[in-house]
Specification:
The protein is an alpha/beta fold. The protein has one domain: Glycosidases (TIM Barrel, Alpha-Beta Barrel). 35% of the residues lie in helices and 13% in strands. It has 12 helices and 12 strands. The protein has helices spanning 5-17, 49-54, 68-74, 103-115, 149-169, 191-196, 202-223, 239-248, 263-266, 271-284, 323-339, 384-389; strands at 41-45, 60-61, 64-65, 79-84, 119-124, 176-179, 228-234, 256-260, 289-294, 344-348, 358-359, 362-363. The strands form 3 sheets. It has an 8-stranded parallel β-sheet with strand order 9-8-7-6-5-4-1-10. Helix 5 links the parallel strand 5 and strand 6 (176-179). Helix 5 runs parallel beside helix 7 and helix 10 (271-284) runs parallel beside helix 11. The longest helix has 22 residues, at 202-223. It starts with a helix and ends with a helix. The relative contact order is 0.16.
Length: 392
């Protein structure tokens, strides 16, 4: 998920140019673990990994080629997050026209994660493209019913339920599922309503989440296997208010509150203040685990390609950017999350390195300066990989 205003502008430009397309770790004990969430997760969103390898990237550890999923597992990663888009047909005009983060690609990723012994968090964007606080576009396949709430609820329910049950038949059932991605605004909107920035209509918004979470519960019953469900909100300062609104409107049947927290976009919220929010949420919603679903920190201001990078700011206590600064940000954030009763910290896209391939906004990666790898794609032992390793 792209997280700052620079990339939001890229999206806006890209969407104007593109036609409307048819349709979307080792274990640690926390100081005060909840019965429902006995493990502390140090995890990574590896959604770009398959694409990078198909684009020719060879990941290395100690200068030796190594399977990236095995590398992350060996270094202490115990939860892999993977985004799922409904039908990302915009990929058809890029590179070799191969789609990523669709169901076929996610199957491949889940298999790799499970084979390496890691749990999986499946991120339903409920869109064909990035969903975040700036954009929540309905899949094109749902546009005929986007104004029909019962039909739209049915679309959400069946999509989530059938996806999970189908994955289970292949031995690929995820351990955790989030319904929606950074849902700070109304979800599954028409392009017109999304562009207009329509205000939150809880009579429409809440039933969609209720349908999605019911689909997860019903998939649990159907498969006979537990699936943790999560609500994902961006920005710790906005999470308590949105959680209160979700709760007041009947969206309560889920297990985990996930937050995005990046200094670059959520300043001046400090690590300690984010910890305050976690502690507050744990007290107000004792039946919910709380996790950082996304964070990131740069290790350099340099570029390794022509794609504009999406993070540029550093916290004064973690400056100048360096692999050690990246490590310290993660180590301090994790210590605070654990101290306040949180259940995990996940890093966003540590394997999104430079490659010859294109995104809709440039050639290469928009995040190579915040990956866990140097510009030769060798894992940096003093950066984020060190943070993962400390969880073993």
């Amino acid at each position: 998920m792209f997280k700052n205003m620079m990339l939001h502008r890229f999206f806006q430009t890209a969407l104007l140019l593109l036609p409307m397309l048819p349709i979307s770790c080792a274990q640690e004990n926390t100081p005060a673990p909840t019965p429902e969430e006995p493990k502390f997760y140090r995890g990574a969103d590896l959604s770009y990994t398959n694409e990078m390898e198909d684009c020719g990237v060879v990941y290395r550890e100690n200068n030796q080629p190594k399977d990236p999923y095995r590398m992350f597992a060996d270094n202490g990663c115990n939860l892999v997050r993977l985004r799922l888009w409904h039908t990302p047909s915009w990929y058809d005009t890029l590179n070799q026209g191969k789609r990523y983060s669709d169901l076929a690609d996610v199957r491949r990723s889940i298999r790799r994660a499970k084979d390496a012994g890691m749990a999986v968090l499946l991120d339903f964007h409920l869109s064909d493209i990035w969903a975040d606080p700036q954009r929540q576009l309905a899949p094109a396949a749902w546009l005929p019913v986007v104004g029909n709430l019962p039909a739209l609820q049915d679309s959400v329910y069946n999509y989530v339920f059938q996806t999970l049950v189908g994955l289970n038949t292949e031995g690929l059932l995820p351990d955790m599922v989030q319904v929606g991605n950074e849902v700070n605004r109304p979800i599954v909107l028409s392009p017109q309503d999304d562009a207009a920035g329509v205000p939150m209509d809880w009579k429409r918004n809440a039933p969609l989440f209720i349908a999605g979470f019911k689909a997860v519960r019903d998939a649990e019953k159907n498969t006979g296997k537990p699936i943790r469900s999560a609500l994902h909100i961006a920005d710790p300062s906005k999470t308590p208010g949105l959680m209160a609104a979700f709760s007041a409107n009947g969206v309560t049947d889920f297990d985990v509150i996930g937050m995005s927290y990046y200094w670059a976009w959520h300043k001046p919220i400090t690590i300690v203040q984010a910890g305050n929010v976690i502690e507050q949420l744990r007290k107000q919603y004792p039946d919910k685990a709380v996790m950082i679903f996304e964070t990131g920190y740069i290790w350099t201001n340099d570029h390794n390609d022509n794609a504009s990078n999406i993070i540029s700011e550093t916290h004064p206590d973690y400056a100048p950017p360096s692999p050690d600064a990246q490590y310290r940000w993660l180590a301090d954030l994790t210590a605070e999350v654990k101290r306040r009763g949180g259940s995990g910290v996940l890093y966003w896209e540590p394997s999104w390195v430079s490659s010859p391939c294109w995104t809709p906004w440039g050639q290469g990666s928009h995040q190579e300066h915040a990956a866990f790898f140097d510009f030769q794609n060798n894992a940096m032992p003093d950066g984020g990989m060190r943070w993962l390793l400390e969880g073993k």
